[in-house]
Amino acid sequence: MAMKKTVRDVDLAGQRVLVRVDFNVPLDDGRVTDDSRIQAAIPTIEYLRKRGCRVILMSHLGRPKGTPSDALRLDPAARRLGELLGADVQKIDELSGPAAEAAVEAMLPGTVLVLENSRFDPREEKNDPALAEELARLGDLYVNDAFSAAHRAHATTAGIAERIPAVAGLLMEKELLGLARVLAEPARPLVVVLGGAKVSDKIMVIDRFLDFADTLLIGGAMSFAFMRAMGKEVGASKVEEEGVSVAAGALEKAGRVPCRLVLPSDLVVADRFAEDASTQVVGVDEVPAGWMGLDIGPRTREVFSVEIAGAGTVFWNGPMGVFEMGPFASGTKAVAEAMAASSGVTVVGGGDSVAAVNLFGLAEQMDHVSLGGGASLEYMEGAELPGVAILADRGEA
After folding, report:
1. Residues 89 and 112 sit within 8 Å (Cβ to Cβ)
2. Strand pairing category for 266-270 and 279-283
């Protein structure tokens, strides 16, 4: 697994540096309600500022579908960045073109400029060469610090990097090194915990880890597809019908490989999808008609926790139940607590699992918490991420 050049490996003196960040943050009435993605970008921004670079930031926000929207402008993110940096941050309403070029030309060393939402331009998601050329004129060096967008071949993630020197930011480096602890000679045994709703979203991850991991623990709603594939009745539990055949294939493969595939033995079921629903704990062969499984049960929590405690490396993606509702949070919390207490390497692979460890106050006790979302899963599948592949490898001239 070739490591990428980073901002530490290049001459930065006097450079105009285009940085792809992920400021796709939640907003409420023009205010950022969760600034964790902005905070994650600060080490790279500060590294460049301290070396006298002119720092030009690009990001998308939401899904404007190529049409400008006042509700999705990056002004709130730019304001929050300025507050966190304790410095003035300029924001312009253009992404490229003469006005953007003039704004960059007027910048002083060590200052920061935020360009407008890249997805306001319909050429962004098409990786249009003309837009990539316009953007490349704004900088001498390109830095990708948005691992979460690196699985998209867009103008701001791939097109620019074909035109000017391109390296990884410090957050990108952290993501690649964190996930490499799972993929590149992990400490054994390697235990993988997968949850969430859809088996089909994780078919490639399941297939890869059946070849590679020692133990695969399956929870969440996706476990019902496996149960259905085994002929079990799951009541009114949420079943991804197209995932049943996928689960059947995984079960068949599990019978041929050394990796152990472990499913829940008991469930917390409810008579309806509500926080104040009636609940009971039942074995997986005893789900009452009309009731739905909303969490793994106490026996399963204990089994999963013991597996995690004995692991050399644990990778987790996807909750064990509807953790946003108190009565159905225990399974997800048990996995998070077992990982926090583990003496092995612990990696949380994006998505709702990140929200869970933050909710339970355990994020700081993990070795790596990926902000990559879908990019994390694709990377774990072994897919080539365009925004990573295009960056210069260490050792390249």
Report:
1. yes
2. antiparallel
pLDDT along the chain (397 residues), means of 10: 87 96 94 93 98 97 92 97 97 97 97 98 97 97 96 96 97 94 94 90 90 96 95 93 92 96 98 96 96 98 98 96 96 97 93 90 95 86 91 78
Give start-end residues of each CATH 3.40.50.1260 domain in the chain: 7-173, 185-381
Taking CA atoms, 66 is separated from 27, 86, 121, in Å, by 19, 32, 5
Class of domain 7-173: alpha beta
Q: What type of residue sits at position 360?
A: F
Q: Which fold has domain 185-381?
A: Rossmann fold (3.40.50)
* Coil/strand/helix, residue 339: helix
- Single-letter residue type at 389: A
Q: The tokens of 164 are what?
A: 């000017």
Q: Which amino acid is at 71?
A: A
Q: Name, in order, each residue with C-beta under 8 angstroms of 33's C-beta and a sequence gap of 6 or more.
A: 25, 26, 27
Cβ neighbors of 163 (< 8 A, separation 6 or more) are 132, 133, 136
Q: Which residues are catalytic?
A: 37, 198, 351, 374
> Which single residue is written with the structure tokens 């692979």?
349
Alpha carbons 95 and 105: distance in angstroms, whole number: 14
Note the pLDDT of residue 352.
86
Exposed, middle or buried, 71 (CB in 10 Å: 0-12/13-18/19+)? exposed
